[in-house]
Amino acid sequence: MSEDQWCEVDYRLLREQARALLSGQTHQVANAANLSALIFQEIPGLNWAGFYFLEGDTLMLGPFQGKPACVSIPVGGGVCGTAAALGKNQRVENVHDFDGHIACDVDSMSELVIPLFKEGRVFGVLDLDSPVPSRFSARDEEGVAALARVFEASVA
Ligand code: SME
Questions:
Q1: Ligand 1 in contact with 84 (CB < 6 A)?
Q2: Ligand 1 pocket member 80 (CB < 6 A)
């Protein structure tokens, strides 16, 4: 499915909404909870949106919207663990083609994971799943990464 079949997300507006929502609040769990709710509400075609936070060598489930999910993911494992290990965004067109993908929800077909940084080190990831193959374009990646930067700034 191509991007133009979606109602285009106004990422500039969404970033401003995120800034307003998180402003004046530095609590990591509270801000992750509110941002995952905003993302899930405003970006069409998602079945999961949420956070994992690093504890040692493990990503532990944080606030999210969607079905119950895998609680812990080893760094280097799955799409989330790969994003955390490499410190690089992972935009996966078809999760079934991603070696080691962890299927929390069998409906998920495509995935976008943005690593989160504090003082140059990864401290978690922002993860979006879609039941639609190739849901996420380069534009979505850029827009969601900007939201991740808003979150990082809010908890810095
Ligand atoms: N699919 C992810 C696991 C997390 S869930 O999608 C919520 C992965 O492979 O890391």
A1: no
A2: yes
